[in-house]
Amino acid sequence: MRRRDTTSPTDYLPTELAPLPYGAGADDDEAIRTSLYLNYGNVGLAARALGCLPGDLARRIEMLPSLKADREAARRMIVDQSEAVVIEQLLDEDSPDRRDEAAKFVLTSLGKSLGWGASTTSAAAGFSLSDGSGRQLTVKWQTDSD
To answer: How far apart are CA 47 and CA 50, in angstroms?
Structure first.
């Protein structure tokens, strides 16, 4: 059973964001902050919304720690939403293919910090996990070729 998400992208935005004023540019820190959140931390899209050059905006963001923090927080919003999609796929009992692909993604990307995803001898051999004492578990997906 698939759960339908009823939240909108603006539900994730900080409530104190200032509206993006007409004519705002790369010298208006509140407009930059708003544009970063509305564009999930993507500097190129934020610059387009502000009508300025991405390089100019990137330099401004790098100069101000508060804007750098806002950029990272905005990027985290899109990661959180993406993780919610992966979790939904992991729990989808009606579609084992989606569930298996989601599990493969989690283990080979998010699971790296836990030791999953170490390379094996062949690119098509899946991935492996070592316990540090010489024992190794190799996982090969049915969709991987021999």
So the answer is: 5
